[in-house]
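The instructor's notes for this session suggest beginning with a concrete chain rather than abstract definitions. Hand out the sequence below and ask the class to guess, before any prediction is shown, which regions might be ordered.
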Amino acid sequence: MVREPTYEAQAAAGLAAGDWTTTLEAAKAWVMAGGAWLPDAWLLRAVSQTLHGEPAAAVRELDLGLRHWVQEPGDRAALLWARGVLQLRHLADPCGAAPDFDAAAASAPFWLRRFVVRDQVACSAAACRDRTTERAVPAAPDYDATGVPHDAVAPPDPDHTPGTEPALWAELCAVLDPARR
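After discussion, reveal the predicted structure:
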């Protein structure tokens, strides 16, 4: 019997090929199969949009996860960091990125802290030079699951430990922040 590749493996193959559609389709399928509760699937959705050259759409993907699905502070920190990186490096909006880095720092797990601290410093330096008053994207949403049909997706993985490093972290960072590996 041939075992089907996991959503994670399909997404990894898409990332390795630089194929945004394969990555997005794998991430969407993973969301429906229970990945909606994990930062991994939302990060993949954002990375697929980044590969496609749509950083504002990538932020909207992260906002879906932040608003309706990802509740644990350590998991939210990864999404907030990614949101900040997209604003700082892809949308040239350091002032808009600062609140996301600050929010990520408040609950960043140990593996994420060095990224957050590094980017807070970079953001602060860039914000001093930024004279933009209009933000590239709205502020990050608070968690609010009201009106969302959580029973439409598979339940969360009981083995997930909140705040754990996503399995494809290195691959995600290579797309989100290629100059800073």
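Then share the key points. Residues 84 and 97 are 4 Å apart (CA to CA). The mean pLDDT is 90.
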